[in-house]
């Protein structure tokens, strides 16, 4: 259990440092810079670091530490809960930023800045976590340091099947976000965490259930076993297939028309986060306008091998 205690300490330290970084960024940066860049960097780094450490427990824990699926699933669920409570609304997922762009809820410069921030945060998490492994504080980290240079692909199925799995996970994940957008956080966060945990359990043996292009690029693109083109098709194009209905002309026209309608202007004139009682149902249901949660990351912290 010593290895588990070291990993738990890593999780607590990650959350504490990221929370301190958020507070420092809020104090030093303007609100716009924090919301569009710093918050995304910290949220992505938090997600990426926890995912990498969770990967160690999943791949090495069952045979090196005696960890069972029940322990790993419970730990994943708890990590998702804490991540959801601390991310401060960061998306940490490129598909969420692209969805907001398609729905005319974000400008092109803001979207590009968010994508850059997410990629930067994920890569920073990878570099710092590997340095932490090099300290070899536990037997699991000793093994991970030896195996890190020869990691194997998380894609353990055919490319078409993997693309379908990642697309289906992304679809159900975003559908749940829309379904729970008006639910109180005390219910929404556990429900979303439960869904992500379930998808990590069912889809993990095939693709590790990332449904987050930035997270997948940071965790598995450097590993042997699949080509860069195969990785891109599964982990980038797969989650993007959920946008196909939104890219239809009728849907885009409705979104743009709604964004530029007088009703929206009236709602904004009342202040952020408020709506007129006379606002149309379509406007009240504007996707993700006031419901950004870090579960967009969910890019789940994957459970890959124990279900096999």
TrEMBL record:
Sequence segments annotated as region (Disordered): 263-282
Alphabetical UniProt keywords: Membrane, Repeat, Signal, Transmembrane, Transmembrane helix, Transport
Membrane topology: Multi-pass membrane protein
Subcellular location: Membrane
Range of residues in the leader sequence: 1-20
A GO cellular component entry from the record: cytoplasm
Biased composition (Polar residues): 263-279
Name of the protein described by the UniProt record: Aquaporin-12-like isoform X2
An annotated Gene Ontology molecular function: channel activity
